[in-house]
Amino acid sequence: MTRWRSPSAIGLAALVGLVACSGSSSSTEPGGVDPERRGPQGRVAQFVVECDASHIAYDDPIVYPDEPGASHLHQFFGNRSVDSNPDYDRVAGADTSCDQRLDTASYWAPALLDAEGRRVEPLGLVAYYRPGDGVEPGEVEPYPAGLMLIGGDAASEGPQDTSVVAWSCGTGASRATEPTRCPPTSTLRMIVAFPDCWDGERLTGYGSSAHAVYSDDGCPESHPVAVPRLVIAVDYPSIDPQGLSLASGPVYTAHADFWNVWDQDKLEREVTACLNRDLVCGVSG
User: Is residue 2 situated within a structural domain?
Assistant: First the structure.
């Protein structure tokens, strides 16, 4: 079966090796990055990975560790062995649904449901790793092995800031607080940005992101370690937005989770070669 390829990732894959950052582009690229640092395909320093859907489960090793079936339904991408068990050693090096075979990290988000309550099958996920707002590329450090992060707010009672959670029609389109009707040739895209300033101590907030915050003109003293700003974009078929919901509740409860189970040596090389050198990397093999 042919792997789904996102338009943005195809463009980045065409950049063979490492390409210096330059140019300017739309201010609607994922991630809420400083517009002066954007360029074609969001050409801020970054590396990018594409992943197919891996599995679905009522599990969440961050919010409900060791409680199988306790969560709302999640769509998982990447590491195929992740369930409710938070044991890093058990899942490190497991098979992955990502095109970068050493990206064995796990990404998950609440399942998208149509007006009849049926799960909408995603087309895939694109993960963008970038420096955060006001963070110098050379200051970015790799995630520590096993770090767990949550982006967005599953308990939100209204629209979230579109720099953190947004919906769009494919890449380069205007960001909205809820799903919109997209052209048949496009995709419906859910975008979630993750905190990128770590306290340097805890690997998890035990159901929250208290150990990590979003950068704003750099990282605060309370969370001084700058790690990559991960932005994921989950693509779905262009469907009628009326009546859509998430397994977590209304569409404004959109959020996502990340568990760093990357091959740690590969992750460190990507951060050093791409982010620290302020370069764009394509989808790497």
Answer: no
Inside any domain, residue 167: yes
Q: Which domain holds residue 211?
A: 7-283
Region of poorest pLDDT, from 29-38, 47-56, 210-219: 29-38
Element containing residue 264 per DSSP (H, E): helix 264-270
Helices (H), 18-105: 88-91
Domain for residue 1, yes or no? no
Contact 159, 252 (CB under 8 A): yes
**Distance in angstroms (rounded) separating the CA atoms of residues 61 and 93:** 17
Q: What is the value of pTM for the model shown?
A: 0.86
Q: How many domains does the chain have?
A: 1
| Structure-token pair, residue 47 | 């590396």
Task: Report long-range pairs for 40-43 (Cβ below 8 Å, ≥24 apart).
Answer: 40/11, 41/8, 41/11, 41/12, 41/171, 41/280, 42/8, 42/128, 43/19, 43/280
Give the Å distances, CA to CA, from 77 to 108, 230, 232. Answer: 6, 14, 11
Task: Output the six-digit token pair for 211.
Answer: 């150990």
The gap between the terminal CA atoms of the chain, to the nearest Å, is: 19
- Which distant-in-sequence residues (6+ apart) come within 8 Å of 164 by Cβ? 32, 151, 152, 192, 193, 214
> Quick check: 93 and 82 in contact, CB under 8 A?
no
Task: Give the whole-angstrom CA distance, residue 267 versus residue 165.
Answer: 25
The alpha carbon of residue 90 and the mean position of all alpha carbons in its chain are separated, in whole angstroms, by: 23
* Residue 282 pLDDT level (bands cut at 50, 70, 90): low
- Tokens encoding 217: 């003109």
DSSP 5-41: --HHHHHHHTS-SEEE------TTSTT---GGG--TT
Residues whose CB is less than 8 angstroms from the CB of residue 250 and which lie 6 or more positions away in sequence, other chains included: none
**pLDDT, position 121:** 98
